[in-house]
Amino acid sequence: MRNRILIPVLSLLFFACNENKEVPVITDQPVSVLINLRDNSKLLGLDQVYQPDSGLFLKASVLKFYLSDISVQDAGGNWKQIKDAFLYNLEEQKTSFSLTIPRGSRKLSFGIGVPAALNHEDPTVYSNDHPYSIQGGSGMHWNWSSGYRFIIFEGRMDSTASGSFNEPFAYHTGQDTLYRRLEFDLPDQPLGITVDLDAAKFFKSLDLWVDSQTHGTGKLGVATVFTDNFVDAFSVAVAVE
Amino acid sequence: MRFLWLLLWSSLCLSCSVSEKPGEKPIHDSLSLRVQLGKQLFFDPILSRDRTISCGHCHQPELAFTDGLPTGKGMKGRILPRNTPSLLNVRQHPYLFADGGVPSLEMQALAPIEDHNEMDILIPQVLYRLRRHPDYPEFFEEAFGREPDGYSLVRALSAYQQSLVSEGSPFDLFLQSGDSSYLSATQWQGWQLFSGQAKCSSCHAGKWLSDFQFYNLGLGDSDPGRERITLLPADSGKFKTPVLRNLTITGPYMHNGSISTLGEVVEHHDRRLGTGLSRDQKEKIVHFLKALTDSVFTSAYNK
Question: pTM score > 0.90 for this model?
Answer without folding.
Answer: no
